[in-house]
Amino acid sequence: MSRSSNFATGQVAGIIANLVIVRYEGAVAQNEVCYIQHENVRLMAEVIKVKGDRAYVQVFESTRGLRVGLPVEFTGHMLEATLGPGVLSCNYDGLMHNLNTMTGIFLRRGDYTSSLSAEKSWDFKPIASPGEQVSAGDWLGEVPENAVPHRIMVPFTMEGKYTVKWIAEADDHGINDTIAILTDANGREYNITMVQRWPIKRAIKAYREKPRPFKLLETGVRTIDTLNPIVEGGTGFVPGPFGSGKTVLQQAMSKQAEADVVIVAACGERANEVVDLFVEFPELDDPWTGRKLMERTVIIANTSNMPVAAREASVYTAMTIAEYYRAMGLKVLMLADSTSRWAQALREMSNRLEELPGPDAFPMDLSAIISNFYARAGIVYLNNGKTGSITFIGTVSPAGGNLKEPVTESTRKAARCFYALSQQRADSKRYPAIDPIDSYSKYLEYPELQHFLNENIAPNWVDQVTQLKNILIRGKEAAEQINILGDDGVSVDYHLTYWKSEVVDGVILQQDAFDPVDARTPMVRQRYMLEKVMEVCNSSLQFAGYEEVNPYFKRIINQLRQMNYLEFESAEFRKNEAALMDILAERKTA
Amino acid sequence: METQAFQRIYTKIDQLTKATCTLRAAGVSYEELALVNGRLAQVVKIIGDEVTLQVFAGTDGIPTDAEVIFYGKPPTLRVSDELGGRFFNAYGKPIDGGPEIDGEEREIGGPSVNPVRRRQPSELIATGMAGIDLNNTLVTGQKIPFFADPDQPYNQVMAIVAMRAKADKIILGGIGLTNDDYLFFKQVFESAGAMHRIVGFINTTEDPPVERLLVPDMALTAAEYYAIDQNQKVLVLLTDMTLYADALSIVSNRMDQIPSKDSMPGSLYSDLAKLYEKAVQFESGGSITIIAVTTLSGGDITHAIPDNTGYITEGQLFLRRDTEIGKVIVDPFRSLSRLRQLVIGKKTRTDHPQVMNAAIRLDADAANARTKLENGFDLTDYDERTLHFAREYADKILAIDVNIDTEEMLTTTWELFGRHFSKSEVGIKQEFVDKYWPEN
User: Fold this and answer.
1) A38, A568, B102, B245: least surrounded by Cβ within 10 Å?
2) Which domain holds residue A493?
3) Do the chains contact at B120 and A13, CB–CB below 8 Å?
4) B:374-413 residues touching chain A, CB 8 A cutoff
5) Is residue A109 part of a domain?
6) Is A96 within a domain?
7) Domain limit, last residue, from A178, A194, A210
8) What is the pLDDT of residues A320-371, one digit of tens each?
9) Domain-embedded: residue A503
10) Lowest mean pLDDT, pick from A295-299, B374-378, B394-398
11) Which of B50, B26, B22 minimizes the C-alpha distance to B36?
């Protein structure tokens, strides 16, 4: 949008919940931002439909007390994120206002705090030099932001080629200082600061190409890394009924994943869950750098009691920040909990607009909206040849735990990894409750990733993982047979098959997210455990009758679980390993 | 509410439905209150000069020339220390024969707490029921419902919890409460000598259903007054939230909105979240804890009301009649308190989490054994032992008549482990087994 001056003005002509009808004069654009003046505050809103001289705007605040005739000012731009140094460690609302600098216990309407601190000064170092040709997204300089080299880039909105005319020397600068002057082909000069703005609903495409992902992203969660790995630049989703551990799983990933920057969009979920992050992240260490977790994290909080319209914006705000950091050549992990709440916000609005509803009263274009959004993730080669990535994992809260509902179905088409949380596993406290058989990672079929895994973890890794999955499938079948025919109605082999799958379940799949050691398993240790479990499962063991199988395997599982709680390769760990070998030797045949 | 000189009065209604009326009026603000023929109503839609009002008590008998008076303000509640020990209707008017409250007038359904101003809930609420304290520990600032069938004693259990919890104030929001249950609550509070700690906002089954929409907001406005202004620990009881959701669906239906799942409005999640999210822990020590009841139809938790509730609340509690011991127990499998992680093993003994999980796992094995038995299969020795364990576990731990402290719950559970199982069958971290495994 580049209408230069004379933005439209208008008056409130109707109010239905947070949908306000504005009679405007001048020209307005779809998704243009406007402000409604009410008493002493300005309430932010976004145009979502225009009909004749009426603009339908969704207000990002409570509309209580609004009346017909209130003045409205349009701004000429869409909803934008303000990007620059100082975003990391911040807690924002869905529209990127800083929650920490707001006053009072309650969220006051119209309390729009700025996203970045204008006072703070940054230790700037130039990267580009005068005379160099640059285009959008190219690095001009950098400032240290926590542990991250924050690149100051040519604004993404600048199309075409520019020449660097002047660049600031290494020195302390505020975000609004000019740090470079660029000239275009016609010799026109542009002053560049450390701040830029970008409309959040558009993808930032300042990169050369987007290859297929090929590199494992380690999360420390065994059932993901070993069985259904996610990759740098990959997409995944986690549907599950309430109480199945979606949030605990997401929090585990946000704490442990091998990422430079983690962006958490708490979208329409519980406020106390966000408070957990506020409290824990400044205290916890990042396992990869040893610094505090908060230093690499940005939290976008639109909890379920915050205005619904801002909920939709919150996921786009988060994605825009992720794209900004990706353009610096960083590994970004973005988590959204939960995308269903976002879809519900779309539904509420579509309903108020009296649009014809699609399935379950969701808007017809839900599927397209979701796949467009997931498509913004990915690994990219930047203009300078370096890589940056956004790995995106969204949770879905299917109504009634029914995976056939529209949001889950639409997401399944868009995301490449599927981590199905099973109610049955949750009920029997087998956490994380990811169903090992229903879940999948399409990436495991990528030859690029297979090559990477075999090269970096173990030469026959992919084969071993396939064998492990087979043990689980056969175990499930055996369990069904035993249930139908009874313990003594089947041969001992069935019991063995079943209990081998129980070993895999108890030792690899189940993981205690609240235990300091067990919570995060590095890849080396996952390799060790996988090989140990395969050793147990591949041993031929001798039993006189089925009654002996259960207690014996209980001991094996118990022994391996004790090892999970111990520091890897410590003396105590080795002692338990020896004990395990003794148990195994009891029944091993040559 | 008395009329005052400056108020605008209209006398021509253009449109009437069962729950709403529409008229032409100027200068009306969104969500403000009005009096239609003496009945309280609220602005729910403004299009130009056309204003739609939701009449809480229904529109029966309202004529087209009814007097409509606008108040110029949304619903409010007067708050002060005088609230203690009093009972009010959905509009905040006394129903106990006492005088009106003198105090500051506050809008109900006010803004949300800034999440960065919240504190992490960390104070355990002891109830003495092991089914709750051991397996599903409650924490101040939590919101949790009972998912109950209509025939279960949920109001009784809730009253016991309220009386045992060490709350400074207990606020009862009665939403479509039967008169009998209303009197039951009153009697429990009176006989416990706790009346001064109680505030009640009561809509009984005899009152118009749409009025129910005001009750939770009234109760929570009073709760915020005590928690913020007085730094008190407030416990809010809301029963029954299913009837609240039903009232929402009535209104949205009358407003011609497209229903989503189970004929509930598409905004059900946000509507419920706005209430439940008032549960909060403040830095000053004040807190609001919400215990609610959501009745189920035929035990179906996939229905839109319990389903949306489950996604909002921090867990849920299920009651079940255990036929083996003939008592009502807190169901260990389906119940969950999400905030328990914040206190168990931290405010309680360090072995608490592992003991809890092990006992539930063994109880699940017992359930499997029972299925085997029902299907006519032989039981193994282990199966037999799990069944014995399960019976004692239900009786000594899960039953709602248990009233012991957490330490004793843990000791009892270890005793049951020792009596029925070997150490490796229990599968608890070695350091705890070494410390707590009972001799003999």
Assistant:
1) B102
2) 461-587
3) no
4) 375, 377-378, 380-382
5) no
6) no
7) A194
8) 999 999 999 999 999 998 899 999 888 888 888 888 888 888 999 999 999 9
9) yes
10) B374-378
11) B22
Residues of A in contact with B112 (CB under 8 A): 106-107, 271, 303, 305-306
Could you read off the pLDDT of B409-439 as tens digits, one per residue? Answer: 999 999 999 999 999 889 888 899 999 999 8
B46 touches chain A (CB under 8 A): yes
Helix (H) or strand (E) holding B361: helix B352-374
Structural domain count, chain A: 4
A96: left (phi over 0), alpha (psi -120 to 50) or beta: left
By the CB < 8 Å criterion, does A364 face chain B? no
Considering only residues 170 to 189 of chain B, which have any Cβ-Cβ distance to chain A shorter than 8 Å? none
ipTM: 0.87
- My answer on whether A160 and A253 are in the same domain is no
- Higher per-residue pLDDT: B6 or A559: A559
Q: What is the CA radius of gyration of chain B?
A: 25
Question: What domains lie within chain B, and their CATH numbers?
Answer: 9-70 (2.40.30.20), 76-107+140-313 (3.40.50.12240), 352-436 (no CATH)
Task: Note whether A156 and A267 are same-domain residues.
Answer: no
Q: Do B378 and A488 touch (CB under 8 A)?
A: yes
B-facing residues of A in 341-360 (CB < 8 A) are 341, 344, 347-348, 351, 357, 360
Please, which pLDDT band fits residue A1 given cuts at 50, 70 and 90?
Answer: very low
Question: What is the crossing angle of helices A523-538 and A492-504, to 10°?
Answer: 170
Mutant choice from B33, B42, B49, B114 vs A, greatest count of A C-beta within 10 A: B114
CATH of the domain at A525: 1.10.1140.10
Q: What is the pLDDT of residue B4?
A: 55
The CATH number for A159's domain is 2.40.50.100
A154: confidence class by pLDDT, cuts 50, 70, 90:
very high
Looking at residue B82, what DSSP letter applies?
G
Question: What's the Cα-to-Cα distance from A67 to each of A109, B47, B54, B103, rounded to whole Å?
Answer: 16, 10, 17, 28
- Candidates A13, A351, A428; nearest CB to B258: A351
pTM (predicted TM-score): 0.92
Mark whether A171 and A288 lie in a shared domain.
no
CA A531/CA A459 separation, integer angstroms = 12
Which of B120, B259, B361 lies at the smallest CB-CB distance from A429? B361
Chain A CB contacts of B425 below 8 Å:
551, 554
Residues of B in contact with A275 (CB under 8 A): 115, 118-120
Cβ contacts below 8 Å, chain A against chain B, sum to 203
Predicted local confidence at residue B1, as pLDDT: 46
| Beta-carbon separation of B117 and A550 below 8 A | no
Better-predicted residue by pLDDT, B261 or B1 = B261
Give per-residue burial for A104-136: e unless 16+ CB within 10 Å, then b.
Answer: ebbbebbbbeebbeeeeebebebbbeeeeebeb
Residue A31: pLDDT band by 50, 70, 90 thresholds? very high
- Is A93 within a domain? no
